[in-house]
Amino acid sequence: MKKIVLLCLMAIFSVYLHAQIIEYRDGRYYIDNKPYTGLFTEYYESGAKKTEIMLKDGYPHGATVLYYENGEIQEQRYYNKGKKDGTWLTYGKNRNVTAQANYKNDLKDGMWIIWDENGIKRYEMYYEKGMKKGNWYMWDENGNLIQERKY
Q: CA 119, CA 142: separation in Å to the nearest integer?
C-alpha cells in the first residue's frame, strides 16, 4: 500500500512540474520568479520534442539540443553560464553536419566550417576572440577553391 501511495505522489509531483510555466526574460529562465536550474524541454504543437536546454541559475549551461519535427537533431550548442562556449554543430535534414562553429566566452573563437547539403565544404574561417584571423577559404559547389583571404 505504501508503494502505491508513493507512486501516486510521484505521479502528481511529476505532473505539477510539467505544468509549471517557465518564463524567459532578460536572457534568463524563471519559474515563480526564481531562476530555474534543470532541464527545460520545449515541444512542437505535434508533441515532438523541439528543444532541450540545460539551465543553471536561469542561464543556459551545458548542452542545448534543437530538433527537427521528425525527431532528428538540428543543432547542438554549448553554453557556460549563459555564454556561448565550445563547438556548435548544425545538421541538415539528411543528417550531414552542415556547420561547425566554435565559441569561447560568448565570442567566435577557432575554426568555423560550412558544408552544403551534399557534404561539400563551402567555407572555412578562423576567429580569435571574435576577430577574423588567418586564412579564409571559399569553395564552389564542385569543391573547387574559388577564393582565399588573409586576415
A: 11
pTM, to two decimals: 0.81
* Residue that has been written with the C-alpha cell 584571423 in this structure: 133
Going by the DSSP 8-state scheme, the letter that residue 81 receives in this structure is T
Specify the DSSP element, H or E, that contains 48. Answer: none
* pLDDT (tens digit per residue) in 95-144: 999 999 999 999 999 999 999 999 999 999 999 999 999 999 999 999 99
In the sheet with 28-31, reading across from the earlier edge strand, the strands are 23-25, 28-31, 34-35
> What Cα–Cα distance (Å) separates residue 37 from each residue in 10, 54, 81, 143, 147?
20, 8, 11, 45, 46
CATH domain 34-150 topology? Outer Surface Protein A; domain 3 (3.90.930)
